[in-house]
TrEMBL record:
InterPro entries per UniProt: Asn/Gln_tRNA_amidoTrase-B-like, GatB_Yqey_C_2, YqeY/Aim41, YqeY/Aim41_N
Keywords noted in UniProt: Transferase
Organism: Enterococcus asini ATCC 700915
Record has DNA damage as a keyword: no
Protein name: Glutamyl-tRNA(Gln) amidotransferase subunit E
PANTHER family xrefs: ALTERED INHERITANCE OF MITOCHONDRIA PROTEIN 41, MITOCHONDRIAL
Transferase as UniProt keyword: yes
Lineage: Bacteria, Bacillati, Bacillota, Bacilli, Lactobacillales
Length: 147
């Protein structure tokens, strides 16, 4: 079952339950996927769908940070609900320990020895954790292990 068909099914369920927040987020995700399909000119594969979901999650996390910094509790609560809904469609997230293992392996594979080779390590790690870990979290762990 493709992500679009899953979203359609969940959208119908949210409509029946009159769950406005869930419905709005599902519609936004569906629109993002459909817009990307139009842009690339073909049906999206699972990897492309994951990329879009990750982008949507990143936008919401960035918004949450900004709202909390500005002291807007009303908006940050709304975004937290949206994040919880989007997380349902993403694969299970990796723990810090699992990310550390992947990063340590990438450091060994690339032969990186200093922080100057940060980009090389990130380039090796990100495809492995795509959609399963937040980029900022991976970034912090790579910096820590390269110190």
């Amino acid at each position: 079952m493709t992500l679009l068909s899953t979203l359609n099914t969940d959208m119908k369920t949210a409509m029946r339950a009159k769950d406005k927040e869930r419905l709005a987020v599902i519609r936004m995700l569906k629109a993002s996927l459909q817009n990307e399909e139009i842009k690339v000119g073909h049906e999206l594969n699972a990897d492309e769908e994951l990329t879009i979901l990750s982008r949507e999650m990143k936008q919401r996390r960035d918004s949450l940070a900004e709202f909390e910094k500005a002291g807007r509790e009303d908006l940050s609560e709304k975004v937290k609900i949206e994040i919880a809904i989007v997380e349902n469609y993403l694969p299970a997230q990796l723990t810090d320990e699992e990310i550390r293992q992947i990063v340590a392996q990438a450091i060994t594979d690339t032969g990186a020895t200093s922080a100057k080779e940060f980009g090389k390590v990130m380039g090796a790690v990100m495809p492995k954790v795509k959609g399963k870990a937040d980029g900022n979290q991976v970034n912090a762990i790579v910096k820590e292990l390269l110190q």
